[in-house]
Automatic annotation (TrEMBL):
GO terms for molecular function: aldehyde-lyase activity; metal ion binding. It is an enzyme of class 4 (lyase). Catalyzes the decarboxylation of 3-oxo-tetronate 4-phosphate to dihydroxyacetone phosphate (DHAP) and CO(2). This is 3-oxo-tetronate 4-phosphate decarboxylase. Its EC number is 4.1.1.104. Its cofactor is Zn(2+). It comes from Nonomuraea fuscirosea.
Length: 213
């Protein structure tokens, strides 16, 4: 497959994912951003765009360090996408949303910064795993870069305080799957607040990993 065709397909894949997230209310307004690895570069949604209307020829190209290469000005979170992909060589895509329930959890006081959500269900343990909470910085503040890169070495999903989740996956489909699981688990967590709850035990979580789930 020629490089041009490949990039066309990846552009189409980003737009399909963007529409899917927007149409289902998983991100709103001009929030959220997506990226896919293309060789040494990343295709990323442009800053200020709505995932409901951004078009394939409006995507930006950045390098592995997060520097703008071509196209419109990239997402202000492009540096986070680049940091996650540097930290996770097996990953090929990153998704960031302001999905309501995950954003709500990111505003709670007293969360465990090493694990913001308990493993309530097997699918959360399988698709997301441990979820570190990163400290609050204004959107686009690159001060977050070293902490994000460090946390991403051992975690595919991060929760940005008072903001929302960012998730890397081996494919865009896998990253979407994981961020949707994260959102649903955040919803369960809030539904269950104040009720006696029994998350999976560490042994149950280990057994899922042992069976490659
Ligand atoms: O989610 C966002 C900021 O955190 C949206 O920013 P961009 O429009 O620059 O992608
Ligand atoms: Zn954001």
């Amino acid at each position: 497959m020629s490089r041009a065709t490949n990039r066309d397909e990846q552009r189409a894949e980003i737009i399909a994912a963007a529409r899917s997230l927007f149409q289902r209310g998983l991100t709103h307004g001009s929030t959220g951003n997506l990226s896919v690895r293309v060789g040494e570069h990343l295709l990323v949604t442009p800053t200020g765009s709505s995932l409901g209307t951004v078009e394939a020829d409006e995507l930006s190209l950045i390098d592995a360090a997060g520097a703008h290469v071509s196209g419109p000005r990239p997402s202000k979170e492009a540096f986070l996408h680049a940091a996650m992909l540097r930290a996770r060589p097996e990953a090929n895509a990153v998704v960031h949303t302001h999905s309501t329930y995950a954003a709500a959890v990111s505003c709670l006081d007293g969360l465990d910064p090493e694990d913001a959500l308990p493993p309530l269900t097997a699918y959360f343990a399988m698709r997301v795993g441990r979820l570190p909470l990163l400290p609050y910085f204004a959107p686009g503040d690159q001060v977050l870069e070293p902490a994000a890169e460090e946390a991403a070495r051992t975690h595919a999903a991060l929760l940005l305080s008072n903001h929302g989740p960012i998730v890397a996956g081996t494919s865009l489909g896998a990253a979407l799957d994981a961020i949707e699981e994260l959102e649903e688990t955040a919803k369960l967590f809030l539904l269950l607040r104040g009720l006696p709850t029994r998350p999976l035990t560490p042994e149950q979580v280990r057994a899922l990993a042992r069976h490659g789930k």
